Amino acid sequence: MKRHLISAADLTRDDAVLILDTAEEMARVADRPIKKLPALRGRTVVNLFFEDSTRTRISFEAAEKRLSADVINFAAKGSSVSKGESLKDTAQTLEAMGVDAVVIRHGASGAPYRLATSGWIDAAVVNAGDGTHQHPTQSLLDAFTLRRRLVGRDAGLGRDLAGRRVTIVGDILHSRVARSNVDLLHTLGAEVTLVAPPTLLPVGVGNWPCEVSYDLDAALPKSDAVMMLRVQRERMNAAFFPTEREYARRYGLDGDRMAKMPEHAIVMHPGPMVRGMEITAEVADSARCTAVEQVAGGVHTRMAVLYLLLGGNEPAVSHARTEETK
Ligand code: NCD
């Protein structure tokens, strides 16, 4: 694996399968009464969040703490960033404090890449979502959930998602989750179809390694998983569809539509969900919706990423002593 995790496109199939297998080992640790591993003891990880987040921020923090890292949380609101401080000066402040890894979420696409390649800091950089560009750990946790549900928990080790059909629905234009998933799922051998109104598809989507459709009802019966995306109003500076009702009618997932999916197929959502818009409460609360399971998998997957980036060349669990056995 590389030293940083900036984009899902940087991961080879072997990298991705190693992360997913390591995440399964981390999940087994979570079943123990004491959930902590000493793997990152003495290492410092900073969570640098310039954009709002609930799941990603909490799950990175839980992952870091379960690996025994020292954790520093930084939110741009309430920091000197509000006084006009630049990313460079913020980074140099962190460097002076001697951090080993920076987990960064930023509204500007490319900010994590800049941080990793600028020479401002020496730390490993993990992209926790940059603008409309990438959100690699989200795609890894989605693949973790997909592999568990579609391939099987134990039979899944060492396996990819070859031939599984994943349909991603909604605001593709503004979605870093969609971009990361298209890259990673393609690397893992899955077949991806994007479904969106033409106004919410990016220019050049025809060159992405996936199919594109405007017809949700036609895609549903052919899907092993349907991933619903939130309409990202905060990134919209124009009207992309006539009304919310019209959007929900054509691209929202309700109970009747869900019934068109094969029996084994799952509904995914990265959160936050806007109930009544892209997904009805009936679907969100159904046993087929994996939104909460994805969050749990997020902690295991982020533990695996941090462990592997910060020097884990050996299997995480079997070689590391747990707090229990010390
Ligand atoms: C997504 C994000 O921030 O990109 N959420 C997440 O990380 N769980 C998607 C969204 O905000 O709609």
UniProtKB/TrEMBL annotation:
Molecular-function GO terms, alphabetical: amino acid binding; aspartate carbamoyltransferase activity
Residue ranges of domain Aspartate/ornithine carbamoyltransferase Asp/Orn-binding in the record: 163-309
InterPro entries associated with the record: Asp/Orn_carbamoyltranf_P-bd, Asp/Orn_carbamoylTrfase, Asp/Orn_carbamoylTrfase_sf, Asp_carbamoyltransf, Asp_carbamoyltransf_Asp/Orn-bd
Top-level taxon in the UniProt lineage: Bacteria
Every Aspartate/ornithine carbamoyltransferase carbamoyl-P binding domain range: 3-147
EC number: 2.1.3.2
Enzyme superclass (EC): transferase
Catalytic activity of the protein: carbamoyl phosphate + L-aspartate = N-carbamoyl-L-aspartate + phosphate + H(+)
Matches recorded under Gene3D superfamilies: Aspartate/ornithine carbamoyltransferase
Key words of the record: Pyrimidine biosynthesis, Transferase
Pathway named in the protein's UniProt entry: Pyrimidine metabolism; UMP biosynthesis via de novo pathway; (S)-dihydroorotate from bicarbonate: step 2/3
GO cellular component: cytosol
PROSITE patterns: CARBAMOYLTRANSFERASE
Amino-acid positions noted as binding L-aspartate in the UniProt annotation, renumbered to this chain: 83, 176, 230
NCBIfam families cross-referenced by the UniProt entry: asp_carb_tr (TIGR00670), PRK00856.1 (NF002032)
UniProt xrefs under HAMAP family: Asp_carb_tr
Primary role: Catalyzes the condensation of carbamoyl phosphate and aspartate to form carbamoyl aspartate and inorganic phosphate, the committed step in the de novo pyrimidine nucleotide biosynthesis pathway.
Family listed: Belongs to the aspartate/ornithine carbamoyltransferase superfamily. ATCase family.
Subunit structure, as described in the record: Heterododecamer (2C3:3R2) of six catalytic PyrB chains organized as two trimers (C3), and six regulatory PyrI chains organized as three dimers (R2).
PANTHER family linked: ASPARTATE CARBAMOYLTRANSFERASE, ORNITHINE CARBAMOYLTRANSFERASE, MITOCHONDRIAL
The protein's name in its UniProt record: Aspartate carbamoyltransferase
Native organism taxonomy: Bacteria, Bacillati, Actinomycetota, Actinomycetes, Kitasatosporales
